[in-house]
Amino acid sequence: MKYQGGKAKIAKEIAEYIRTNATKNILFSPFCGSCAIERLLVKDFEICFFNDISTDLILFLKELNCFTFPTEVTEEKYKELKYSEPSSMRGFVGFFLSFAGKFFGGYAQKYQKGNRDFLKEAIDSSKRLQLDLKGDIIFDSKSYDEFTPFGMCIYCDPPYLRTTGYGDFDHDKFWSIMRKWSEHNDVFVSEYEAPEDFECIFEIQKRVTLGKVKTQMRTEKLFKLRIII
Questions:
Q1: pLDDT in tens, 92-128
Q2: Rounded (10°) angle between helices 88-96 and 55-63
Q3: Between 20 and 30 A from 92 (CA), which of 44, 117, 118, 179?
Q4: What's this model's pTM, rounded to 2 decimal places?
Q5: Are 72 and 49 a contacting pair, CB within 8 Å?
């Protein structure tokens, strides 16, 4: 499933590292997005708590197992949903039928030459996600800083520093909160870089799309607060 900042291509490696190194039995993901990594960890934890600030996305994930997929989404329908009230359909179309997975970042099918069917791809990947998101999962849609987790395994995939399209996300505040959360939780953070008191515990190469055709290899890293002995 195409999603801006998504990690589908490297999800297995990151999920395996978290699975192997977690010491808690509750999984909390405050920036769950399309659940590329979280979906692989559901069976490893007693309870899963997935949050994202996008109301539309969470509505879609909540209704995923009973969601009625559209048989067609025209460009006109796409534009209509862009300015409609939050809904599961708006979440599905806005993220998964948009260029590069950016929320209403352009009608993806319009840019495609050839026979590629973005709607079919989105439906097929969503149905695969249905099979994974089973069990005791709680969904919410808040800002991550409204939570005070305790005794959890936390996986954070926040807006990355120096990455466009994420507004005015306060990275200094984020890392300060991660230090506090790390006192009573296992905290794993995906980023390209981190403050000096966080150590890189895992890294993997990832190909990222910079434009309609241009790509670049970047090193995706997983960070944890450095333990000082």
A1: 999 999 987 889 999 988 766 667 898 999 999 999 9
A2: 110
A3: 44
A4: 0.88
A5: no
